[in-house]
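In this section we walk through a basic example: taking a raw amino acid sequence and producing a predicted 3D structure, encoded as discrete structure tokens. The instruction is simple. Fold the sequence below.
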Amino acid sequence: MSGSTLASDARLLERVRAIGVRHGVDYTDDAAVTALLAERRRTLERIQRGPLVWWGALFLTAAVFWPLLASAFPALAGDPLLSYAPTGPLLLIAVACFTVVHVRWKRELTQGALTGYREVAGLAVAHGYEPAHVPAWLEGRTPGVSEKRRAPVPTYPRVDPQEPDATVRTDDSPTVPPVPRRHSAEPRTLLGAARPPVTSRPRITYGTRLLTPQA
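The resulting token sequence is shown next.
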């Protein structure tokens, strides 16, 4: 969804600029929006693959396999407390790590400039400009795992098409007034037809007399 598309409708452009002021982003600047989306996507990926995810996976694995490992040691297998009690704390630590990761990821996805971009996309759809593609990560979907939209593009009421006279003029060149049509300087008769050109009549001389043929 390019900036020229947003600027082609005066009503849509006004609302997009209001969203940009609220979030501090010019959503009609294609370069700035592209850089914003790329940076926020990298941030979300870092959160989903950060150290807390690995710690959570480690503690979860330990909680699952601790009873099996304890049964392999006679000193632990004879004591139910030592065989099963550590499973609870390990599982709680794993859940806490995953919860913190999810909260950070959800906050990054649903707040700030990404929220404004989804609002702009929803307004564009309402004005009849369908975006070519909405990436799964922008709506919080996980292709192949879950199609649930945790941050969907908002839906707005449809807006009637813009009148042709309300189209925004993007060309800054000065408007040239039409050149008035010049009237022909050719003489005309009373009926409006062009008067044929007057040609001189031939003169014939016989001796000393000048004869002029009569019309």
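Looking at the output, two observations stand out. Strands lie at 204-206, 209-211. Confidence is low (pLDDT under 50) at residues 165-170, 189-193, 204-212. In the next section we compare this with other chains.
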